[in-house]
Design goal:
Elements: H1 10-15, H2 18-24, E1 53-56, E2 63-66, H3 69-80, E3 84-92, H4 95-105, E4 111-112, E5 115-116, E6 120-129, E7 132-140, H5 149-165, E8 168-172, H6 179-188, H7 199-215, H8 221-231, H9 238-248, E9 252-253, E10 270-271, H10 273-276
Length: 285
């Protein structure tokens, strides 16, 4: 699928400007996987109509380049999901293939000042399904963008490309964003590496919080964590930070799609059996 990234065909080279060829070959954009992947487009390459984001991924630890708030939302949701093994953003499509598709459909291929451009897919996911790695392509678009006829044409080109590759392709809009889940993820993600506790502190902190949760079974979590601060003579907010860290480490779980962290009660929480049985895997900073 990525043979075009080292183009030897004269036809392909003539289709693209030298700067794009350099990006594909010398800089090896769009190549690699996991932490070694390099997106074809970065936040410096594209003028964005909104905010852009650079942030580390939980999936592979690489800094990802996201070109809108909606791309950030989609990325956070997929990055949090346990079945996602890899996420490659701004993934380039073979221009020879997209040009052929455009010609066949009678659609103008994306170009700037007469120079054909390499089309990209916003997110390419490697998912684990029934023990097999299955790639899925995601186009991230705001609903109002999909009212533009030209955007629809380019979406059709992208869809037909992935059909030809035998890969499922989906459009992700703000309609697909579960607001409560996203808020909860944003509340936890910054805390997954906020502490690097040794093995004794990991279990001790978990047991202290878990015992407090069992003792106060219908109380707001913020109040219980405040009690622990006072009991252990800690700085205000210490145990809430520990709690967020342990939740990000999956020591405690709750229905994050339905229950916001703002109203979270101890009765909403389920302690991990792996942590209770001391068989857990702690993710270090």
């Amino acid at each position: 699928m990525r043979d075009f990234l080292t183009p030897s065909s004269k036809d392909v080279i003539e289709l693209l400007e030298p700067a794009i060829i350099k990006r594909l070959t010398k800089e090896k954009r769009g190549q690699g996987s996991g932490k070694h992947y390099k997106p074809f487009l970065t936040v410096r390459d594209v003028p964005s109509k909104g905010r852009v984001h650079r942030r580390p991924a939980l999936t592979h630890g690489r800094i990802v380049h996201l070109l809108s708030d909606l791309e950030l939302s989609a990325f956070l949701l997929f990055d949090w999901h346990m079945s996602i093994l890899d996420i490659r953003e701004q993934f380039p499509l073979d221009p020879e293939k997209t040009l052929n598709i455009a010609q066949r459909l009678g659609i103008k291929h994306p170009a700037v000042r007469g120079i054909n451009q390499v089309m990209t897919t916003d997110l390419l996911l490697d998912t684990l399904q029934s023990g097999k790695i299955v790639p899925i392509a995601i186009s991230v678009k705001y609903r109002e963008e999909l009212e533009d006829e030209r955007v629809i044409e380019k979406q059709e080109l992208e869809k037909r490309f992935w059909e030809g590759e035998g890969i499922d392709w989906y459009v992700f809009t703000e309609n697909e964003v579960p607001a409560t889940l996203l808020r909860n993820i944003k509340w936890l993600v910054p805390h997954i590496h906020s502490f690097d506790l040794d093995s004794n502190d990991q279990l001790n902190t978990f047991e202290i919080i878990n015992n407090a949760i069992q003792m106060h079974s219908e109380e707001k979590i913020s109040i219980v964590m405040k009690m622990l601060d006072e009991q252990h003579q800690c700085k205000k907010g210490t145990y809430l930070a520990y709690f967020r860290h342990l939740c990000a480490q999956t020591a405690f779980t709750w229905n994050m799609t339905e229950v916001s962290h703002r109203i979270l009660k101890t009765s909403d929480l389920t302690p991990s059996e792996h942590w209770i049985n001391k068989e857990f895997e702690y993710v270090h900073a």
